[in-house]
Every structure is written in C-alpha cells, then in structure tokens.
Amino acid sequence: MDPCPFVRVTVGNLALKIPVASKPARTVVHPSSSPCFCKVKLNNLPVQTAVVPCLPPETQTLDANSHGVIAATFHLSKSDLDRVASKSIFAAKLCLKISIYTGRRGTTCGVNSGRLLGRVSVPLDLAGTESKPSVFHNGWVSVGKGAGKGAGAGITQFHLNVKAEPDPRFVFQFDGEPECSPQVFQIRGNIRQPVFTCKFSFRNTGDRTQRSRSLQSDQSSSRSWLSSFGSERERPGRERKGWSITVHDLSGSPVAAASMVTPFVASPGSDRVSRSNPGSWLILRPGDGTWQPWGRLEAWRERGGADGLGYRFELIPDSNGGMSAGGIVLAESTLSLNKGGKFVLDLGSNSGSGNRGGAPVVPNSPACSPKSSGDFGYGLWPYCLYRGFVMSARVEGEGRCSKPTVEVSVQHVSCTEDAAAYVALAAAVDLCMDACRLFSQRLRKELCQPSDLLG
Questions:
Q1: Which pLDDT tens digit goes with each residue over 408-448?
Q2: CATH number of 6-166
Q3: Which of 188, 294, 308, 360 has fewest C-beta within 10 Å?
Q4: The pTM is what?
C-alpha cells in the first residue's frame, strides 16, 4: 500500500516573559496572577487556542516544563499544498498568525474576555516538507509595545517553535454506507484500489459471541469475555443491539471486526441514549484462532441547543483475554449529529475532533498500533514509541448518505490487520450516528432485525 503525502505543522515550546513594573498599577500585567493564552490561526483552518506559561523576566533559557510541548497542530494534504504552491493571484500565501492574550479564556456577552498583548506572524514555505522536516522559527520574539526595538528591558518576549514535517497517511474510503456491506478503497491521488470488503450483520441477541467461518473459537469463553463488556439489559422495542461489521481482505479472510456489545437504550422517560447509560462497541482483531479485543467505543446523545454525538474511545491493554487492566482513554469528544464531523485520534496536539474544548482528553500521549496493542508490558505511556496523529474518520450527520473517509498514519500501520482495525473503528463511529437517533424516529431497514420490521 502506498501512502498519500501529508504535512504536519506544529507550534510548540510556548513561553512568555512579561516585564514587571516597578510601581504596581491596575493596568500592569502581573504574570504570577494573570493567566495567559494565545490563539493560533493558519490561513482558513480552524483557530486553535493554547495556554502560554509565564516565566520570570530574568529567565534566559526555556522552562523544562514548556520544552517539547505542542500547543497547536495543523494538517495539510497534498491538495492543500498544491493550492498554496499555485501561482494564482487568488491563492493565499501561507502565514501562521498568533495572537497573545492575558486574562481568562472565553467570551462575556460576545466580547473576548482576554486582553491582547501582541501578535506574531510567521510566514511558511512548505516546498519540500513532504519529504523532509523544516523549522521556521525557534526562539524568542518581542511582542507588544516596543517590539520593533528588539529584546530589551521592559519588552514583552514570546518564545515559540514552528516546524513542518512529513506525515504520510493511508487514506481509505467506504464505497457505501457501512450497514450496506460496502467495499473499502484505498485512495491515492486519482487512483482508487479495493483493499477490503465489509459485511454488516446481526448477532444472535441471545448469544454475545462474535462468529466467523475462518475463526474457530470456544463459544463459552467468548461469551464470558464479550458479555463482560456489555450489559444484558433487555427492553424490547426500546433498544438497538446485536449490530456487527466484519472487515475482510481481498482473499476473504476476516482481518478486523466491530461488535456492538452494550445495546443503545433510551433512558427512562425519554427517547434518547444518555451519557449516563451509553451503548458500546468492541473493536476486534484476529489472534490465536479467535477474536481479540483491541479497543472499546462508547457513544451517547448529548443534550443542548444543538444535539451532538458524544463518544469515548479507549484501548484495551490486555488483548489476551484478561479483563483486569483498565482501558486507556485516547479520545473523548463530540460530533455534530446534524452536520457530522471528524472522529480524530491525535495524541500530541490540541486540535480536537469537533469537541467543545477543541482538545482530546489525553494530549501529548502516545498510542499503540492494533498489531502491537497486546504487548502492554511497556505499552503504557511514556514508554510506547507511537505519538502524534493516529487516525481520523470523516462521517456525515443524521439522515445523510455517509461513505466514511479514513486516514491512518503510516507509523501506526505495520500490517493489513492494523489498517483494518481503524477501518472497523470508523464503521462503528458511523453506525453510532444511527444507533443514537431518537427512538421516536425509524431506522432504515438495513439496520432493523427482521422481527422489528414485522412488528
């Protein structure tokens, strides 16, 4: 499989040195008591916000706690790079703009609550960054009043590191909605090559086992560990259960699966799946002649002015059948049920996946590929080698035809099963959009058991 070129632009190592006035005044910023933050913007990409630590004015070197910390990350595809590199007068030149504020983040009556200290602009030339990294700035820069006079006494200074590096990815696209058992194509430029097929089915709701012709397993042991993840709640007509999707390679061998192990049930007195009682999926991969759990996805319907799909994804440390170890949460966020969005696993940035806060719950924490997720003796961070972008899956909102597009970082794919596990996860995320529909709304026939259609 050949990857697609992507470039990752990161902004990190942020710090601020603010001079302390000899005479206290209301208008003077006191770093010890005033929090600082910045807003980072790269052309028309979404603005990202990050906290900026304040250092004493006499500090000469960067604080160890600030070194290596990524504050904002932007991802550019080949088409983005071509657009920027074009000589058209309509093509905007790439420029990173950072606005630094003191005060608390947020707005009051529609007005930003922070006070602007200054702005920094860093022009970017990304030519050649598809194959080699490039550093555009690393060090201190003067901001605010007197910034043009250099770094002297009484001048506010801002430290940042801006760099771009190759981040190649495999790109997959479903040829139809997951419940319609589509093919999955690998995309590279204008080339579309089939690599997987998906099979949507219903498990026997009286049996929690996940079956496959090619994977002969002990039904009693499979039932015990699968049911340990899902509850046995039964509410006829008020739950969605038993969905599963199996990913096969082109030879027909199953290489990954997603199985709904906890039914999606309407909370008492309502017609929605609540956060306090979410439904859940297991993402499975083959091993030792049976399915082994790799990850768990929980989903629910958020309340609020605009309904959202809340989700939580965690790795399962012990894929050898032991259930004692707790899961490692890699993402907890929200997608718009109306417009859809991107489910993202990006460990080491605050670029969220449509969540309210704009940041994953575990920033700067590494993930492990599905193939190696069983080796968690040294798999828990900070010992695991995998960091940065892991995967993303674009899904559409309720009632829209969704053909998920999945991007997976090359460093997290060492075999077909690795890529297939992320494809299965993307299918589960997409199916959660339907599983979390209001129970007053009917599902399409592909998602209904024959008994439900007859009823």
A1: 999 999 999 999 999 999 999 999 999 999 998 888 888 88
A2: 2.60.40
A3: 188
A4: 0.80
